[in-house]
Amino acid sequence: FLNATDERTPEGRRKKREGERSRQRLADMLLDPVYARLHHQLGNKLIMAEAEADSALETLERQLSEIGHALAAMEDRAARDPSGKLVFRYANGRVAYSDGSTVPDEILEGIIWPPHAPSAEDYFAVQAQRDQIEERLMEWESYRNEVLGSIRDTYDDEENPFQSPDDIQDALDQIESTRPPAPSVVVDHAATPETSTTTVNAFPHMPKT
């Protein structure tokens, strides 16, 4: 038996004609100079935006790995309570567990503080940086897959292309308006017990066209 999409069947021949007509519609729309200019502009913008998103994702994944190692290094140097839970001391004397909750007074006497134990201020600052990177990573993943991916699908679909110059302009505007902030500077508080280093990941926005 022949598959319904086989060109030797009536249904297959009908689908082939529909596809040819759809591709002809795109060719006809490209005869409009405004549509053609915006279509070309969108193609270039997509290439740039996809490259920017891929680079941002690579940067953020690297930052997340680096800050994970930084937290692990801080935890290796941290003090522990008698039960083995990580504890961190603020400059004002308050002592907190790694989840931010306060260590009870009766536990404090059993804590031995290593000479290079990280402060609570440093530890929770790095935790906050990690959370921010994770949030930014999710934003860029959504932008890359949902925003740019959807626009790319329509741009490449000759059978169901953008229907008007306004639709293309909307896509151009969406690429600009939904782009997440660029990856930011990450400060590694755990480089050594006494010093910290700063890793700058400069990532400029692509120019508007």
Summarize the structure.
This protein has 209 residues and is mainly alpha-helical. Helix content is 57%, strand content 7%. A hairpin with an 8-residue loop joins strand 4 and strand 5.
Uncertain segments of ≥5 residues (pLDDT<50)? 190-209
| Bulk shape | elongated
What is the first-to-last residue Cα distance? Answer: 53 Å
Average pLDDT, rounded to a whole number, is: 85
**Helix count from the secondary structure assignment:** 5
Percent range for β-strand residues: 5-15%
Number of strands: 5
Strand order of the largest sheet: 1-2-3
Largest sheet at a glance? Answer: 3 strands, antiparallel
- Give me the Rg, rounded: 27 Å
Q: Which percent bin holds the helix content? A: 55-70%
**Structural class assignment:** mainly alpha
How are the SSEs ordered, and which strands pair?
Elements: H1 10-29, H2 33-77, E1 79-80, E2 86-89, E3 95-97, H3 105-108, H4 120-156, H5 165-177, E4 186-188, E5 197-199
Helix pairs in contact: 2-4, 2-5
